[in-house]
Design goal:
- It is a single chain.
- By secondary structure, this protein is of the alpha/beta class.
- The chain has helices at residues 9-20, 32-36, 49-52, 55-58, 61-70, 72-88, 93-101, 117-121, 149-158, 168-176, 203-215, 233-240, 267-275; strands spanning 25-30, 106-111, 126-128, 131-138, 144-146, 190-194, 218-222, 244-249, 261-264.
- The strands form two sheets. A six-stranded parallel sheet has the order 3-2-1-7-8-9, sandwiched between helices. A three-stranded antiparallel sheet has the order 5-4-6, with no helix packed on it.
- Helix 1 crosses helix 13, helix 5 crosses helix 6 and helix 6 (72-88) runs antiparallel to helix 9.
- Bound molecules: nicotinamide-adenine-dinucleotide and zinc ion.
Length: 279
């Protein structure tokens, strides 16, 4: 973006509206920053969860297994924090403005978030690239099972107390058992339908996301550092097919070749301000 430095934020908001307004098909590509103002901390930002729970120990399956074996109470704490924040969160004005845009444009939401807030705000077409905390999936036959907010709340409640020193691992397994229950079809082991680092993205969501990005005329990228694959790939793809790409971020140093406009500010303010003017 050649003239990024000379634009004021108001100019950038206005420009963002003008880029989205003529588009019939819009893709919204969201990351953790979109839900920050719903009370779910991002992982990577300062004070974020990765500072306390290093991703190599908590965000990969082998890492989690290792941590479970040596420090089970840390795993309890991590799961408790992550689940608690999600079960307490409500959609914020940005989620709602995105859902409302569906009444005026054809909108596909592609999200890296696992918090279910786009659907809860009313968005109908949502491709969840990193899965969702609101489902379990069978590791053997792939069958999916919905998980309710009440079930997640129960899980968070069970995990509040530190584990006893003796028998900590057995106790933790018992506490999380409903999340790793046996599959009703094949008796295989179920697990939360979320994508850990190093795992494949769900194929269906990924191909739907790619198709939407190829077909869109404008893309709104909200609250993602675009560091994690496919963070940068999808906006670059949209840009390549001629779509205008608008970025909303808190990071004033955000710089990428595929952004046509960058608006720096909190998503819950900036996104409604852009989208509500798109009639
Ligand atoms: P990320 O790399 O996408 O970074 C977050 C980005 O959001 C940063 O660029 C930051 O500047 C921006 N941001 C922060 N607050 C914002 C705000 N109020 N308004 C606008 N922008 C804001 O995400 P991450 O935190 O590194 O997480 C990595 C992955 O972990 C995610 O892709 C996701 O799968 C998972 N995660 C999910 C959730 C969730 O479901 N809500 C929360 C944290 C992490
Ligand atoms: Zn099964």
């Amino acid at each position: 973006m050649a003239d990024g430095n000379v634009m004021t934020n108001d100019d950038a908001v206005q420009r963002a509206r003008e880029m989205i307004a003529p588009a019939d098909r819009v893709v919204v590509f969201s990351g953790a920053g979109l839900s920050a103002e719903s009370g779910i901390p991002t992982f990577r930002d300062e004070g974020g969860i990765w500072e306390r729970y290093p991703p190599e120990d908590f965000a990969t399956v082998p890492g989690l297994v290792r941590t479970f074996l040596v420090r089970p109470d840390r795993v309890r704490e991590f799961v408790w924090e992550a689940v608690r924040d999600v079960t307490q969160a409500e959609p914020n004005p940005a989620h709602r403005a995105i859902a409302e845009l569906e009444q005026r444009r054809s909108v596909a939401v592609v999200t890296q978030n696992v918090d279910g807030l786009h659907r809860e705000a009313g968005s109908k077409t949502v491709h969840e690239l990193h899965g969702t905390l609101y489902a379990l999936q069978c590791t053997r036959c792939g069958r999916e099972l919905d998980v309710s907010r009440a079930e997640l709340r129960d899980l968070a409640d069970r995990l509040v107390q530190p584990l006893p020193k003796l028998g900590a691992r057995t106790r933790l397994i018992r506490l999380i058992l409903p999340m790793v229950r046996r599959c009703a079809s094949c008796r295989g082991r179920m697990r939360p339908a979320i994508v850990f680092f190093g795992e494949q993205l769900p194929e269906e969501a990924w191909s739907a996301a790619v198709a939407a990005c190829r077909a869109c005329q404008a893309m709104l990228v909200v609250g993602t550092s675009a560091l994690v694959h496919p963070g940068a790939m999808l906006p670059a793809l949209a840009h390549d097919v001629g779509a205008k790409v608008v970025v909303v971020t808190l990071d004033p140093t955000f710089a990428v070749s595929w952004a046509d406009t960058i608006v720096v500010g909190p998503a819950a303010e900036v996104v409604p301000s852009i989208l509500q003017a798109v009639r």
